[in-house]
Amino acid sequence: MKRLFVILLLLFAVVSCKVVSKTAGLKEIGSKGWYTTIGPFAEFDPKHKSVDIWVPDTIEKPPVIVYAHGGAGFREDDRARIDLFRRNGFATISFDAYEMNGLDWNFVTRRVTNMGKQQLIWGVFQGAVAHAEKSGRWDTKNIFLYGASNGGRTVLYAGSALQNTTVRGIISEAPAATGYTLGDYDIPTIIPFGALDTWAGKSPTDYVWERTYPSSPISIAQWVKSLQEKERPITFVFYENAGHLLFEGPLEKVTVRRGDTIAFTAYQGADKAALKKYEQDVISFVKNNTVK
């Protein structure tokens, strides 16, 4: 009996270790307090408390939007994007990848690199898309991907990384300038930016879409141009009187601090006219690319 108890105890310990190991770890980069993330990363769990799956009860088999949040985790502006699709009769799948990985969003958004953030999001997002492919609650031949900022970079990466033939469109709002390498694909894609978006830039004309880094030597603008030259259905959409992430609220210039110093000053949000036009464009894009 004692031997059986020891064996059961060991089995419990092994199982417990496996559960713990499914959340991401952190690895410090350099000596300035920045981190990247290391796997194994959490996978999509439809029963996790951060997961929100919504299907309209007045529409049979609606298209479904799989949403990837930005660098701060799933916040109020993310809820506003989800609500936009719900008001227009689409099913939605959203989540908080940071919560699934057992990491605090305050720490991740301030101390983790873009690549580190995107790895957390991607680990969950690809499972969310797989879930969308097999559910009978919506039209599985009409799946759309939508992401903002770091989530926007993630959905662009998904265009070439996912082996999926029923993704009908990709919306990448203000994708991060660094992170995953972007590949070639032919899924209809729009990349909306506020025309004043210099988030984390070094000057008033250091626009996110034109920016390069040693880790990301090809700008988003250069990548888009390379796909357009191959006649891929991808395009920018710019909005006047808008900064970084149009759903952040009214257009305003904000000062962002990192520690005790000012990191940068930039515009965020959008005025009412820009946001209204943006919402109309996004819904039209989805409707125009939905197949019967």
Structure characterization notes:
The protein has 292 residues and is of the alpha/beta class. The chain has eight helices and eleven strands. The strands form three sheets. It has a seven-stranded mixed sheet, with helices on both faces. A two-stranded antiparallel sheet has the order 1-2. Strands 10-11 form a two-stranded antiparallel ribbon. Helix 5 (114-134) crosses helix 6. The chain starts with a helix and ends with a helix.
Short recap of the structure:
The chain has 292 residues and is an alpha/beta fold. Helices cover 35% and strands 21% of the residues. The longest helix has 21 residues, at 114-134.
Largest sheet: 7 strands, mixed
What is the 3D shape?
globular
Number of strands: 11
* Assembly state: single chain
- Beta-strand level of the residues, as a percent range? 15-25%
Helix and strand string, N-terminal first? Answer: HEEEEHEHHHEHEEHEEEH
Q: Give me the Rg, rounded.
A: 20 Å
Structural class determined from secondary elements: alpha/beta
Arithmetic mean pLDDT: 90
Terminal-residue CA separation: 63 Å
The poorly predicted ranges are: 1-21
Q: Approximately how much helix is present in the residues?
A: 25-40%
For the biggest β-sheet, the strand order reads 3-5-4-6-7-8-9
Tally of helical segments: 8
